[in-house]
Give the backbone structure.
Amino acid sequence: MPEQTYGAEPDLMHYVAVLRRGWWIIVLITLLVMGGTGAAVSRQPHQYTAQAQLLLQPDSLASVLAGGSSGALSPTDVLTQIQIVTSAPVKTAVAKDLGVDFAQVPTVSVSEVSSTDVIQISATSSDPKAAARIANDYANEYLTFRQSQAVNAYGYAATAIRSKLTSLNTQLAQAQASHQTSQITFLNTQLATYQAQLDQLQVNSALAAQTAQLVTPAVAPSVPSSPRPKLDLALALVVGLALGVGVVLLREALDRTVKTAAGLEGLVRGLPTLGVIPGFAHPGRAKNPIVLVESPHAPAAEAYRQLRTSLRFLEVDKHCEVIQITSPSSGDGKTTTAINLAVSMAQAGSKVILVDADLRRPAVHEFFGLEAVPGLTEVLVGDQHLDLALRKTPLEGLSVLTCGVLPPLPSELLSSQQFNLNQARLRSSADYVVIDGPPVLHVADALALSARVDGVILVARAGKTTRDETTRSLRMLDQVNAPVVGVVLNDFHPPRAKTGPYGYGYGYAPKQPAQVPAPQD
């Protein structure tokens, strides 16, 4: 068979399908997050934030000492002033103004406004007037502290310049006494320079408060800054959606079962999905009903007919007279699939022999109410002729070869020459031979049997068979060159909004003919 690619990486459409299946989880989690947020917001007390803005000025003292050149604030200068606003001297003054202890002084946040020389002081309180007062107190006490710093700095600078002038006057008197003309000229120049600085300091000392300016005093806000219901609920919506999507994807990653036909096809690139069989049940009826007989118009019955049609299309390229039905493990529905496929073929007019080759856990005879013995085992060991072991069924064209006595070594019987000879007889006696084989992963019987058939169909059960089991089964069949012709998804439960796994085709029963009244005489 051509090389196949098993277990391929899921594509974008796979994740879209996962999210569509888990939409209710996303909606539920989003509603829970938004509901919790709404409840928390409703219990949260209102908080008000007031803001005062200060415009910082360059240090005029540095400008005077630099010879009158105008200074400019650097980013470091702005950050330094931001730290001073919340420094201990300013907080001490604010505590005194508010009449509280230092440890009880409300905290504020200070930030730069858009890379400018403006800083913003934000205070938050449950009382809007208190918030405005706190912000203004910090701003005013900061201005007072800066003014005090500036006055002190000017005083220290003036004292230093006066001391320098005294020293220069002494040197000038000595130079004049000794008639040192050049020295006199130099000292007079120095005296003039320092005197000009002293005069400028005396002028700027009165303007020391201009180191910063309150440009926007804080006012009592009318709207609370928190909670913000609209913004909080919008954030809760985003968080809820993200959390819901994450939970759905995590659930999908942890759940390794095959759920849809698209998911099954994504595991096997190159092998067709021959059929998707919806789940069915018959309450109050037989233990093992044959759906094509019990409910011929049920969606599952139509699905088995579509499986039969898919096999006939395969015969254009592959001659499939002997077909083995297997699955990764027990409970996947291989026996039900084999029986209903054989019944559908017989109903279509073909002569079919159904063989129960699961010599460990046989079940075909239970569906038809037959005794298991004699059967395949007796034929293979020579205790019974094949023609006598075949059982007729009420359905025309369908015969059954049951399992027989359970042998100690089933794989040796299935790989024996006697099996080959009897299979050739079965092939010549019917149009199709459908073999219910054992599961692939548990025993070697299925692999031994697969080398002696025309085609192998692997059945996976939706919600039970894992992706790893499916790909491992196909790889094991590949290793023995088994002629795998396709896969079947069994027990699929389509969304309620659709009539079938592809949205069309199932539940399409024929209408009952209308009752025509008898003509009146």
